[in-house]
Amino acid sequence: MTSTDSSTHEGFTVEERAAMKDHAQELKTAARRGSRADKAAEAERDVLAKIAEMQESDRIMAERVHAVITADAPVLAPKLWYGMPAYALDGKVVCFFQSAAKFKARYATLGFSDQAKLDEGTMWAAGFALTEVTSEVEARISALVKQAVG
Predict the structure, then answer these.
(1) Which among 109, 114, 73, 110 has a CA at the least distance from the CA of 93?
(2) I need a labelling partner for 129 at 20 to 30 A (CA). Which of 9, 66, 96, 145 fits?
C-alpha cells in the first residue's frame, strides 16, 4: 500500500479545489437564470455578496476596485469567476480581484486575463499586488481597465 501523506501530494491545494467547486457552482447558477438582464443583475448581486463576505481589508479594497471598474469600464460585466469578483466582456473574463485570504497570500491581486489589451512590446504585467487602494492606485486601475477594453 502506498502512503497517503498529504504533505508530499503535489495535486491541487484545498484552496484550489474550493475555487474549482465555486466555478462549477457559478456555471450551474448561470445556466438556471432567465433573461440576459436577469443574469446580469443576479451576477452583480453575486459579486457584491462575495465582496461582502471578505475579511475587512480585502473587502475595502474589493469595494473600491469594483467601484472603479464599473464606473470607468462600464462595458465590463461583473460576474463570479472561481469564487472571485471578475469583470467580463462578451462573457469572457478580462480582469478579476483575488483577495489575499483566497489562497492565503500576503496581498490581494488585481489580475488580467489574456483578453485584456495590455500588450506592451514583448512583455507586460498581467497581475498587480494590492495592499491598499489609494487614490493613486484607483487612477492606475482606471487606466488599466480602460486600456484592457480599449
Answers:
(1) 114
(2) 9
